[in-house]
């Protein structure tokens, strides 16, 4: 995966937490063949749609993001333009959803659905009218990678549509954030903008070795998110991707941090510590 750092993140590049997440380090080898730890390709039933659990479908709108996280579970795909869904791909996806009414929960991911707002718009415009789809979730990291983009015309139109759909269907926006230093005036203003829409805003965080795997950092992050009105949802053990082992921490150390977070944060401010199991069980709480 090529290095890609947005102009906004470049301004923060002196910060070690930002640098380690986005810049290629000497530990990265160009020869690694990255695996698919969550077996998404095996369950990709139509281009862009992963149907792994009976009632849920994951739609990858594209493989494109505003910046490339070096620890990304989908490092094998990110940046590849071949993942971008065409109009025909969108039609095929919608047809599959209509033919599989047991799918009531649809997750838009990628890549970042806000990085290709026109495609996400087209998809949502039709998805909202599939009566068997009862909830929609959208995962994004763009508020922390390119907050200025949220004031462009295309993202504003997408937000208007999201706001409109959210009046009828529960719509969740899941923001991916790993470190309190990713919160600042600009990124917090995007969180506020998202919260003005008719949506619930939740957060997802990945334990990253030597970046955020200590109690103080995560305590501050979840407390700040809680104060911004964001519900911390999941705290992940880093997925096992070949070549990215330097980011995966010691699960016993992470358990101790998670237990302390549970003891010291308000219940609603404390995310569930989970591991995404490779055998198809999905996200299981780490006890
Ligand atoms: S924004 Fe998300 S999908 Fe894109 S590179 Fe980062 S972790 Fe991967």
Ligand list = iron/sulfur cluster
What does the main sheet amount to? 10 strands, mixed
Order of helices and strands: HHEEEHEHEHHEHEHEHEE
Number of helical runs?
9
User: By helix and strand content, what is the structural category?
Assistant: alpha/beta
CATH 4th-level superfamily: Aldolase class I
Overall average pLDDT? 94
Helix content: 25-40%
Question: Which SSEs are present, and which pair or pack?
Answer:
Elements lengths: L6 H5 L4 H7 L21 E3 L2 E5 L2 E5 L26 H13 L5 E5 L7 H11 L7 E6 L1 H4 L7 H14 L4 E6 L8 H12 L3 E7 L8 H13 L3 E6 L14 H14 L7 E6 L4 E4 L2
Parallel strand pairs: 3-4, 4-5, 5-6, 6-7, 7-8, 8-9
Antiparallel strand pairs: 1-2, 2-3, 9-10
Description:
The radius of gyration is 18 Å and the shape is globular. The protein starts with 6 loop residues before the first helix and ends with a strand. 32% of the residues lie in helices and 18% in strands. It has a single domain, classed as Aldolase class I (TIM Barrel). A hairpin with a 2-residue loop joins β2 and β3. It is built from 9 helices and 10 strands. The protein has 287 residues and is α/β, with parallel strands linked by helices. α4 packs parallel to α6. The chain has a 10-stranded mixed β-sheet with strand order 1-2-3-4-5-6-7-8-9-10. The site of iron/sulfur cluster has 11 residues, from loops.
Notable characteristics:
32% helix; alpha/beta; 10 strands; binds iron/sulfur cluster; 287 residues; ten-stranded mixed β-sheet; globular; TIM Barrel
Short description:
By secondary structure, the chain is an alpha/beta fold. The chain has helices at residues 7-11, 16-22, 87-99, 117-127, 142-145, 153-166, 185-196, 215-227, 251-264; strands at residues 44-46, 49-53, 56-60, 105-109, 135-140, 171-176, 200-206, 231-236, 272-277, 282-285. It contains 9 helices and 10 strands.
């Amino acid at each position: 995966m090529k290095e890609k750092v947005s102009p906004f993140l470049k301004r923060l590049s002196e910060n070690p937490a930002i640098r380690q997440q986005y810049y290629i380090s000497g530990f990265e080898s160009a020869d690694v063949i990255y695996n698919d730890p969550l077996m998404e390709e095996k369950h990709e039933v139509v281009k862009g749609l992963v149907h792994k659990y009976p009632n849920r479908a994951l739609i990858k709108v594209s493989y494109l993001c505003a910046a490339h996280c070096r620890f990304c579970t989908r490092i094998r795909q990110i940046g590849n333009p071949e993942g971008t869904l065409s109009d025909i791909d969108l039609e095929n996806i919608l047809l599959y959803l209509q033919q599989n009414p047991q799918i009531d929960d649809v997750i838009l991911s990628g890549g970042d659905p806000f990085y290709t707002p026109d495609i996400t718009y087209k998809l949502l415009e039709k998805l909202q009218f599939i009566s068997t789809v009862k909830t929609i979730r959208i995962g994004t990291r763009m508020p922390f990678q390119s907050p200025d983009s949220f004031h462009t015309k295309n993202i504003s139109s997408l937000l208007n549509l999201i706001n409109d759909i959210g009046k009828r269907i529960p719509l969740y926006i899941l923001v991916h954030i790993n470190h309190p230093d990713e919160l600042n005036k600009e990124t917090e203003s995007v969180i506020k903008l998202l919260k003005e829409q008719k949506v619930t805003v939740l957060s997802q965080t990945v334990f990253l070795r030597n970046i955020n795997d200590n109690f103080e950092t995560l305590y501050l992050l979840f407390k700040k998110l809680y104060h911004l009105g964001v519900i911390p949802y999941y705290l992940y053990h880093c997925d096992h991707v070949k070549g990215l082992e330097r980011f995966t921490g010691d699960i016993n150390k992470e358990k101790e941090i998670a237990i302390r977070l549970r003891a010291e944060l308000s219940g609603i401010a404390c995310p569930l510590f989970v591991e995404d199991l490779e055998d198809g069980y999905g996200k299981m709480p780490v006890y």
